[in-house]
Amino acid sequence: MKIEQRYWTESEGWQTEAGSLPNGGDAQWVLVFGGVEKMREAAWLQETKQRYPKALIMGCSTAGEICATRVRDESIVTTAVQFEHTRIEMAQVDIGQMKDSHDAGVHLAQALDHEGLTHVLVLSDGLKVNGSELAKGLRETLPQGVAVTGGLAGDGSRFQHTLVCADGVVMEGKIAALGFYGERLKVGYGSLGGWDVFGPERLVTKSSGNVLYELDGQSALGLYKNYLGDHAAGLPATALLFPLELLSGEGGASLVRTVLGIDEAAQSMTFAGDISEGAHARLMKANFDRLVDGASGAAKASHETLGSAAPDLAILISCVGRKLVLKQRIEEEVEGVREVLGAHAVLTGFYSYGEICPHGTITGCELHNQTMTITTFSEN
């Protein structure tokens, strides 16, 4: 596996961060992350197509771009990959043409060739998709043992528009899935959070899909406003500082859900994934050191999955809520990943509205929020 990584900023223009592909035309895959406004522009896409004419170009808008150990906003990061023994195949859907997010996951999984399929990477619109239903459709339809990782596109803390680039076309409402084929490719993954729970355990007394209306018979939005105090005016972004932990029963692993939008009239909150009626939940708050430790833990888990192989490429997908909390310390979590994975691995990624990765005993994939999720690749 050979990799060339480049980035673009307003002040520096295009710069090479890592590696070199003298014959860029041999790259089969370009992964791109960028700010919404930059992703809308045609210049970067035209230049990338010219540089890598044979490559599938896949990516999304972000709430921050990761390039090596730097985190930037409103930049463009491209990571071009030339495989030696691996084949890739892309599938895509427009969520507006699907019955629902579960149907979209099923359609994507069916569209990929299952013969020899090793792994699937998914990048999805971050506002129009129910991430947990998307993950469910994928894992129910893909072959046993094929894992899925990826994430939901971001739009900073604005929550207005998100974009996905699929085969060189950038648009809203899109979900792209990339299938990897070949026995020589090793893929590792890990996902950890680092948030502390606080307050009493509460019962979800009214919800519908990923829309939460009541906790303990009270308005969920009202409860959040009480906790947020003066920060309530900044909803929904400020709710990212207080994600919701869903408890999966005695001895089971919990999932974290984060807010995507609010409805004052209905007094409801829309989350990135389902909030099941009858579930028990607790509010969470940030712990700076544990957030950084969580990123390092995810890196260790992804590395362990690879076995003895050293990763060539690592895709880091971290929740926008972590970025809002860590602020000027945000690069500490990326530096923690570098320490675990070593200097050889090329690091790319983005801050997201949701992360997709296998979870606990669930085969395939699940939606996570407020985690650092890492996918590592090694071709030997």
UniProtKB/TrEMBL annotation:
Stretches that traverse the bilayer: none
Domain of life: Bacteria
Pfam families: FIST (PF08495), FIST_C (PF10442)
FIST C-domain domain boundaries: 220-359
Domain FIST: 26-219
Coiled-coil regions listed: none
InterPro entries: FIST_C, FIST_domain_N
Protein name per UniProt: Uncharacterized protein
Organism from which the protein derives: Sulfuricella denitrificans (strain DSM 22764 / NBRC 105220 / skB26)
